[in-house]
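Extended Data, panel c. Modelled sequence:
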Amino acid sequence: MKLVHYREGRERKYGFLVGKRIMGSELASKIFGIDLPKDISDFILSWSRLNNDLALVKGLEDHLQEGIPLERVKKILAPITHPPKIICLGLNYKTHAMEWKVPPPSEPIVFMKPRTAIIGPYDDIVSPSITKKLDYEVELAVVIGKECKRISEDKASDYILGYMVLNDITARDLQRREKQWFMGKGLDTFAPIGPWIVTKDELNVDNLRLTTRVNGERRQDGSTRDMIFKVDYLISWLSKGITLEPGDVISTGTPSGVGVYMNPPSFLKEGDIVEVSIEGIGSLRNRVRFEKI
């Protein structure tokens, strides 16, 4: 199941992407005589209680003619706009640690992004004038589906709603000047996400291809099999001391190929088009702009 957040006219709506059509939540409720939440945030909060209704939603393929063609939708929005937390992992790919010329970490390196960094899959990345070294990082993002704390690794998948793509936009000059990485990673528009949430039942994330292209040039090309700390381990490890809540986003790190380690370094420029993709999920495509102040 692909959970999509979109704009129709002036209204924000959500639904289910089936093939090339969006089946809105209101339509699904009507077809199956169920009462789905009106808002995507409420749907995510209610996900763990909706199992029977969600089983019915899988039958939407029989009603495709009633859906909206994807190309007619005015705008695809970020699947989550107000997550309780955005938890990110640093140096969680072997090849990325190698290009940093550091040993793989012995335990996860964690930092946070604020929710104000979130933009949609096709929105502009707007860089403030305080940075001149803007970079990209394609990442698999996990969306938590129900509250958990102190869970074992073998139970971690029970608490996952699904997965999406996140581009961990980074101001390398700010990142290098601080120890916590918050300013270098957390500026407004520095977390494009989407294009939708693919539920966990549709995806095995052990060996997915991740790529980044800038103006069509391939920069990153890796696989989730290169992760140092796998998804289930990360959820269990984090939950030892942090309550994970429905809608939390855990971004799991990036493979090698970032701009700062190219020879010579290549940072994003005004007008660049950055496309990050993950096999089985989809792509984000964002234009880069720099504030003129």
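Residues 231-239 form the longest helix (9 residues). This feature is highlighted in the accompanying rendering.
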